Amino acid sequence: MNNGNNLAFPPEIKFDVAGNPRIFNGTIDLGAFEFLLDPAQYGASYRDLIPYYINAGYNLAFFTNHYYSNGRFEGRSIDSFDEFRYIASNAGDLIGAFGLNGAAATLHYLNNGYTENRSTTAFIPSRYLNSYPDLFNLFAARSPTLYVS
Length: 149
Ligand SMILES: [Ca+2]
Known about the structure:
Layout: E1 23-24, E2 27-28, H1 32-36, H2 39-44, H3 50-55, H4 61-71, H5 83-89, H6 91-98, H7 102-113, H8 125-131, H9 133-140, H10 144-147
Antiparallel strand pairs: 1-2
Bound molecules: calcium ion.
């Protein structure tokens, strides 16, 4: 508590997820709710929001503002974007460019991949596992409901 930087948060956001004042005793409280929101992950999760982010000059604060002013009331998830599936779905160039850097890949989707109409779901994990018996036996046996399609 009281460890946040007031300048790092948009001033129009005055309440946290629970509806409590974000600035208390003069300093923003860094509660669990604030730690959870990654504006890039939130934004990449919702294609309908990305055009507004672009119109806002590729400003990630748009997503933060949207979540606190609208998204949380609409029941939107803070992160349903699978950045590694995005990388695998564009394996031709993105594996080489990003490897396992999911944060960079997420920004790539927001800043380029969306307008380039890149797929986020072309890679089908269950199909991949079913193609390789050794992988299937290793992973699917552990979580059959996850991997058997
Ligand atoms: Ca994610």
